[in-house]
Design brief:
This protein has 231 residues and is α/β, with parallel strands linked by helices. It has helices spanning 39-48, 66-69, 84-97, 118-128, 173-183, 190-196, 216-230, and strands spanning 10-15, 33-34, 37-38, 53-59, 75-77, 105-108, 134-140, 145-149, 152-157, 163-172, 202-205. It has a single domain (7-132, 166-199, 208-230), classed as Spore Coat Polysaccharide Biosynthesis Protein SpsA, Chain A (Alpha-Beta Complex), CATH 3.90.550. It has seven helices and eleven strands. The chain has a seven-stranded mixed β-sheet with strand order 5-4-1-6-10-7-11, with helices on both faces. Helix 3 packs antiparallel against helix 5. The radius of gyration is 18 Å and the shape is globular. This is 2-C-methyl-D-erythritol 4-phosphate cytidylyltransferase. Its EC number is 2.7.7.60. The record marks 22, 29 as: Transition state stabilizer.
Length: 231
């Protein structure tokens, strides 16, 4: 089904309710300082620089006062859930409450992918805005891929058709709500939910710097990249 792109808008949804248990931080990792600013502020700055984004909504946990204490050009909704999927679904419904239409596009992005750039965001929009399904930033796998059994290599897999999923992932709001609610709370990205509906999201090349800060060593790498950009 094709939809006229001239009447649709672009929204950003940033799930920001996780506790970052693998990061080794004392609090939520998305608020840890990197290159002089809380991590999430680097993420939001990239979206603020994309003029086509009508509104950015950040989903935080109940009782999270970060955006009360720190100004950012976003709407913060304290509707975060126990899983990323719950936070995304709740955030999608919040977007509908603040005026987004089911035919509008939403770009869902991890708060901890703080190295995203306006150029990558614009590239995703350009690639997907006339597509019937939508798509995601991703990177072709360059390393040799192994499966494991009992701590030993069980099999070497072909990397020819393998991609690493990144974010943002961009889909129509109404269709994504349907997909996420059908997929359930354990789904780890929006593209997987769309695939379960029989859709085939478009793969849009991202980049190696658009990684998710997950482990302690990732903070130093992200800081080095951000300081390099500042210079």
């Amino acid at each position: 089904m094709s939809v006229n792109v001239s009447n649709t808008r672009f929204f950003a949804l940033i799930p920001c309710a996780g506790n970052g248990s693998r990061a080794g931080t004392t609090g939520p990792k998305q608020y840890e300082p990197i290159a002089g600013r809380p991590m999430v502020m680097h993420t939001l700055a990239a979206f603020a620089a994309v003029k086509r984004i009508a509104r950015t909504l950040v989903v935080v946990a109940q009782g999270d006062g970060f955006f009360t204490r720190n100004f950012a050009p976003v709407t913060a909704a304290a509707c975060g859930g126990e899983t990323r999927a719950i936070s995304v679904v709740n955030g999608l419904h919040e977007l509908r409450k603040v005026g987004a239409d089911g035919r509008d596009w939403v770009l869902v992005h991890d708060a901890a992918r703080c190295l995203i750039t306006p150029q990558l965001i614009d590239g995703l929009i350009d690639a997907c805005q006339e597509d019937d399904v939508g798509g995601l930033l991703a990177q072709k796998l360059v390393d040799t891929l192994k499966t494991e059994r009992g701590g030993r290599v069980a099999e070497t897999l072909s990397r020819e058709d393998k991609w690493l999923a990144q974010t943002p992932q961009m889909f129509r709001i109404g269709r994504l709500i349907e997909a996420m609610e059908q997929a359930g709370d354990s789904v780890t990205d929006e593209a997987s939910a769309m695939e379960a509906l029989g859709q085939r999201p478009l793969l849009v090349p991202g980049g190696p710097q658009n990684f998710k800060v997950t482990y302690p060593d990732d903070f130093a790498l992200a800081e080095a990249v951000l300081k390099g950009r500042q210079r």
